[in-house]
């Protein structure tokens, strides 16, 4: 009798071990299958009711594909730019341009900012390995919020242009400018900025970050 129970117990342990191994191997098998059949997978399209989604239904495997998001045409155009401040180079100041009062309002030389192109080219300072990374082809878009207070007109515009020029348009839902109760004239920006992405303007009725001043 004891021998019989021992056999049962050993069979039970064997089954547990087999299940344990199968649980470990199952995700690996699924992963290898998806990788080897990646090119054979197809999207499934379906029309949604009006106003829902983008009018297409995607299978769960679509989100696994990766793509190169670099805009090489834009990169080439930037490489050809020349002028003061281009490619992140210092702006050459003359003796007449060295005016300390230019720093008082903004904490930087607004004269230089006013004389640098709004779509200024910048060097790529990323690590070499980061320049070849592939990201998912279907990414959610996002709202970009820019809070400011008495910001220099040209530096704020340059920030907006830099975001738009260096971000895939499909990934920008909107740009929200939050004026934290500036007391210098900047309301004209709402009508001056004409860009391919929605830009919303919100002016606070009181200073929210005065404790940081």
From TrEMBL:
Residues passing through the membrane, by range: 6-34
Keywords: Disulfide bond, Membrane, Transmembrane, Transmembrane helix
Pfam families on file: Glycos_transf_2 (PF00535)
Gene Ontology terms, MF aspect: polypeptide N-acetylgalactosaminyltransferase activity
InterPro entries, A to Z: Glyco_trans_2-like, Nucleotide-diphossugar_trans
Top-level taxon: Eukaryota
GO BP: any one term: protein O-linked glycosylation
GO cellular component: Golgi apparatus
UniProt-listed SUPFAM superfamilies: Nucleotide-diphospho-sugar transferases (SSF53448)
The Glycosyltransferase 2-like domain, residue ranges: 143-193
Name this polypeptide is given: Polypeptide N-acetylgalactosaminyltransferase like 6
């Amino acid at each position: 009798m004891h021998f019989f129970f021992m056999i049962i117990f050993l069979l039970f342990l064997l089954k547990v071990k087999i299940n344990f191994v199968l649980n470990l191997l199952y995700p690996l098998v699924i992963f290898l299958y998806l990788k080897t059949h990646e090119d054979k997978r197809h999207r499934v399209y379906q029309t949604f009711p009006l106003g829902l989604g983008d009018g297409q239904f995607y299978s769960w495997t679509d989100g696994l594909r990766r793509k190169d998001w670099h805009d090489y045409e834009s990169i080439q155009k930037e490489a050809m730019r020349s002028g003061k401040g281009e490619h992140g180079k210092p702006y050459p100041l003359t003796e007449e341009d060295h005016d300390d009062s230019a720093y008082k309002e903004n904490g930087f030389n607004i004269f230089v900012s006013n004389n640098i192109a709004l779509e200024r080219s910048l060097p790529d300072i990323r690590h070499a390995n980061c320049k070849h990374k592939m990201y998912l082809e279907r990414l959610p878009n996002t709202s970009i919020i820019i809070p400011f207070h008495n910001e220099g007109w040209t530096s704020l515009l340059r920030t907006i242009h830099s975001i738009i020029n260096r971000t895939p348009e499909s990934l920008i839902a909107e740009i929200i400018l939050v004026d934290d109760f500036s007391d210098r004239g900047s309301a004209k920006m709402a009508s001056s900025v004409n860009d391919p992405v929605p830009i919303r303007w919100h002016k606070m009725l009181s200073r929210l970050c005065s404790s940081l001043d």
